[in-house]
Amino acid sequence: MNTALTTHNLPIPSALGSLDAYISAVNRVPVLTVEEEQSLARSFREEENLDAAKHLVMSHLRFVVHVARGYQGYGLGMGDLIQEGNIGLMKAVKRFDPDQGVRLVSFAVHWVKAEMHEFILRNWRIVKVATTKAQRKLFFNLRKSKKRLGWMNDAEVSAVAADLKVSKREVLEMESRLSGRDIGFDAPADQDDDHAPPAPIAYLVDRNDDPALAYERNDSEENQLELLRDGLADLDQRSRDILKRRFLGEPKATLQELADEYGVSAERIRQLEANALKKMRTLFAA
Predict the structure, then answer these.
(1) Are the CB atoms for 89 and 113 separated by under 8 Å?
(2) Which residue blocks in the chain are alpha helix, DSSP H?
(3) Is the peptide bond before 251 cis (omega within 30 degrees of 0)?
(4) Would you call 119 exposed, middle or buried from its count of C-beta atoms within 10 A (0-12, 13-18, 19+)?
(5) Neighbours of 14 (CB within 10 A)
(6) What is the spatial distance between Cα 67 and Cα 112, in angstroms, rounded to a whole number?
(7) Contact between residue 13 and residue 29 where contact means Cβ atoms under 8 Å apart
(8) Which architecture characterizes domain 211-285 according to CATH?
(9) What pLDDT is stored for residue 102 in this prediction?
């Protein structure tokens, strides 16, 4: 089978100028129906149609973004996670069999997560040292400030804190970090120590949710937000302000507060609110 489909064929955050622009672009790609997905998958599988494969990949890029958001707590760039996930998505498209009775998103989630996990394994460390300017200063000065190789006593901690103009807590935390060591991200396969702490890989997020349902739910929420933005934009400024302050603001404005501000009765504000809500409901029901 032709394997010419590569990441060079796909949009990437750097090419679009920002991660937000990339996410906005992939969210505008229409979601495929079951029939469209199966037709494209068969065209690629039976005819080596790369355009069909690219269409399959493009329509699922938003799903990769959805998965990547679950791994943002490891100190790695969201754009990097997305690009690694895109590689997994393309591998899944190559291997996807439309006759197995599952949606591509359910099949692809394992490949997408596998690439992201591999990226995290290569780049993540359990201990992050000197991540702020103050911590970097403390990191580079702490060793030469210590009087002995062992743990510092309270007087030494106080002296270092005063000298470097940081708190005693920060000194103790950095000393603990410097005294630690990196540990294996995943435990050896033959590890049988029941008392050993779990390897960091055990903490990778797995929401244990059906990926197809999660994908559809996430897409539905994004569509609802887009409709809300469009609906508010179509209202006149006063009606838009009334809805925002009555339902989206904190604290929420009362009818009388808005009536006093606009110089009309509270009943008139209620009528304007009702008319605006009616227009919004029509938009959502379309």
Answers:
(1) no
(2) 13-16, 19-27, 34-47, 50-58, 61-68, 78-95, 104-123, 133-145, 154-164, 168-179, 211-234, 237-243, 255-262, 266-285
(3) yes
(4) buried
(5) 11
(6) 8
(7) no
(8) Orthogonal Bundle (1.10)
(9) 87
- Going by C-alpha positions, the residue among 1, 6, 105, 99 that lies closest to residue 46 is 1
Separation of alpha carbons 88 and 153, rounded Å: 51
- Residue 100: CB atoms within 10 A of its CB come to 9
Look at residue 250 in the predicted model and tell me its pLDDT: 75
| Cα→Cα distances 78→84, 200, 204, Å | 10, 20, 15
* Predicted pLDDT at 42: 93
Q: Is the pLDDT of residue 56 over 90?
A: yes
69-106 confidence digits (pLDDT tens): 888 766 678 898 999 999 999 999 999 998 888 899 98
- Interhelix angle 78-95/61-68, rounded to 10 degrees, is 130
pLDDT value at residue 43: 93
pLDDT at 190: 47
Q: pLDDT tens for residues 140-158?
A: 566 555 545 456 778 878 8
User: CATH for 7-123, among 3.40.50.300, 1.20.120.1810, 3.40.50.2300, 3.40.710.10?
Assistant: 1.20.120.1810
CB 145, CB 155: distance < 8 Å: no
Among 133, 234, 106, 121, residue whose Cα is nearest residue 184: 121
Read off the pLDDT of each residue in 52-76 and give the average, rounded to a whole number.
88
Short-list 117, 132, 269, CA closest to 200: 117
Q: How far apart are CA 279 and CA 204, in angstroms?
A: 44
Q: What is the model's pLDDT at position 124?
A: 56
Q: What gap in Å lies between CA 267 and CA 22, rounded to an integer?
A: 45
